Structure formats: C-alpha cells, structure tokens
Amino acid sequence: MNKVLFIQILRENRLLCIVLLLATLLCSALWYATFRQSSLLAQQQTDWTTKRRQAAPRAEAERTSSYQRDREQLQQLYATIPYRHEFPRVISEILDFMVLRSTTPGAMSYKVKKTDLNGLLAYSMTCSASGSYPGLKRLIGDLERLDGISTLDSVTFTTPDPALEKVVLDLQLTIYLQEKQP
To answer: Mean pLDDT across the stretch 146-163?
Structure first.
C-alpha cells in the first residue's frame, strides 16, 4: 500500500517534486562551484607568492643599480657646477652675452645665501640692461643656457620713453656655485 500511495502523491504533486529536484540540483551545483573556486583561488595565491619570492632579489638588485645610477648622475651634475672662486668668470660671461646681443649693461648686485644642499651656495643676482627688445629677448635665452645651474627668477621690461625703441630689462638670476674645491 505504501508504494501505491507514494505513486499517487507523486502524480498529484508533480510540480512540487520537480521544483524540489531542481532546488537540490542547484544547491549541489553551487556547492561544487564554490569548492572548485576556493581550490583555484588557493592555487593562484600559492603561484603569486612563489612569483613574488622569485622577483624580490631582482627588485633589490634593480633598486641598488638605480641608486648607483642616480648617484653617478648627481656626481656628473655636480661636476658641471662652477666653484665659488669662478664667480667673476660667470659675471664676465653674463657681460659678454650683453655685449654680444648689443645691449648696454646697467647696475649689478648680488647676495650670497647658503642652500639646503651640501656644499652649494646660491648667488642671488639682480642686474639690468638696455637695448632693443629682440636683443634683450636673445639675452634672456643666453642667460637661460648659462653654464652650471642657474635659474632666471624674474624678468621685467620697461620703456622709459615710448617714442624710443630702447627697452630696459631688469632681471633676477640665481646662480648656484660649489663652496670649495675637493
């Protein structure tokens, strides 16, 4: 009797049985996928850890070579910076640029400051020149290419008489020089 009753229940509740069977299949598929994914994740983590351990010595070697390369570049840069006793030569070079560009030099003054960089002095220099506008523009270009390390901090053009083509240039320049010879 149990068998007949069971078959009759199944026939009457066919939809419920199909839903129960599908839910069971879905749960088992999700459990399998989760189990499989966690094992793949564990394998990928192991692979990643292995690769990091292999790459660590190379990264350390690259860091060391990068440090040495940067140090050599700094030494090359320092080699281009003139020494303090060469400041008159730098002023002479600026005056030569002014003569080359057909400008008339004006007043020059400078002030020495210590920098945060070891062994470097900053000479903050103000000077003026007068001449034609194209000549003064070329002079600025020459000053930007001055030997060593220098920065053109400010540039001001003024025209004392608008009827004349004469322009006055006031500029502030910072020149970096090494404090003493090695």
So the answer is: 86
